[in-house]
From TrEMBL:
Annotated protein name in UniProt: Sigma E regulatory protein, MucB/RseB
Keywords assigned by UniProt, alphabetized: Signal
Uncharacterized protein TP-0789 domain location: 81-271
A Pfam family reported for this protein in Swiss-Prot or TrEMBL: LolA_like
The organism of origin for this protein: Halanaerobium salsuginis
Length: 273
């Protein structure tokens, strides 16, 4: 079973991309059960969204981008997805295209097409810690994870941004395979959507990055949906704001529409069609 971890952000925005005091009562759900509910949440068979991607430096200066993304469950693999992203603006990144194919029991496949190079390049395992297109997400952040590769601890229950949440700590069983020492997620009890995720540096053990959902959670086509998230690097002060954009006055975000499998190919990366 795959766990949609940090890319849940991109997946949550696409799909809708991965935690007071402790109650004196016995908690009725375990940390693993919370994350299983996150993984099993309905996010549609297909997703399509137009997104703004603002890169904000520590002084507040913004570089804005426009990205369109499509995602579809792989036939016969209900817990695996294929996702393609196309950069439309600005001109410096226009027609850059990224493809990810999730795999069971092995790392996901990732490729990127850079117009200046005119060819498709595979993202190697050694590049997993590199920034994705100058954002605060790495290529590893984009990948899915096996839920069995982590141990989970329900730390407490508390409110965050007016949502009652479970707070769950996830620690990798094989630390060498992961870029973070641990993550802590605030998961809504009503929707099982992470609305806050803290990522801890593997070398120092200190809090390194924080992702926060800064929009309401609403239903679109019957699917609980998030419209806006922010990922911040606490060391550099740089942050990435990812949000659903409108086209012709309407938000472009839809589920369960037909998407051709041809879109999720290296040929599409090369040609855009």
């Amino acid at each position: 079973m795959k766990k949609r971890n940090l890319t849940l952000l991109i997946t949550v925005v696409l799909a809708a991309l991965l935690l007071g005091t402790v109650s004196s009562a016995v908690l009725a759900i375990s940390g693993r059960e919370v994350m299983e509910n996150v993984d099993n949440r309905d996010d549609g068979q297909t997703r399509h969204a137009l997104m703004g991607m603002d890169l904000i430096d520590s002084s507040g200066q913004v570089r804005d981008r426009v990205v369109e993304a499509w995602s579809k469950k792989i036939a016969g693999e209900d817990d695996l997805n294929q996702t393609v992203m196309v950069f439309h603006e600005p001109e410096s990144v226009k027609n850059t295209r990224f493809l990810q194919i999730e795999n069971q029991d092995t790392d996901d496949d990732q490729w990127i097409y850079l117009p200046d190079l005119g060819r498709v390049r595979r993202i190697s395992g050694g590049q997993g810690g590199d920034s994705f297109m100058g954002t605060d997400f790495t290529y590893d952040d984009m990948k899915s994870r096996e839920i069995d590769d982590f141990t989970y601890k329900l730390l407490k229950e508390e409110s965050f941004n007016n949502y009652d949440c479970y707070v769950v700590e996830a620690t990798p069983k094989n630390p060498a395979d992961e870029q973070y020492a641990k993550t802590v997620s605030w998961v809504t009890k009503e929707h099982f959507i992470p609305v806050k995720i803290e990522m801890y540096d593997k070398s120092t053990g200190k809090l390194y990055k924080r992702m926060i959902v800064d929009s309401k959670i609403e239903k679109v086509d019957g699917v609980w949906t998030v419209y806006s998230t922010v990922m911040k690097n606490l060391d550099s002060g740089h942050q990435t704001h990812l949000y659903v954009k409108d086209r012709n006055g309407n938000y472009l975000l839809e589920y369960n529409k037909d998407i051709s499998d041809k879109r999720f190919t290296q040929q599409f990366l090369k040609t855009g069609n």
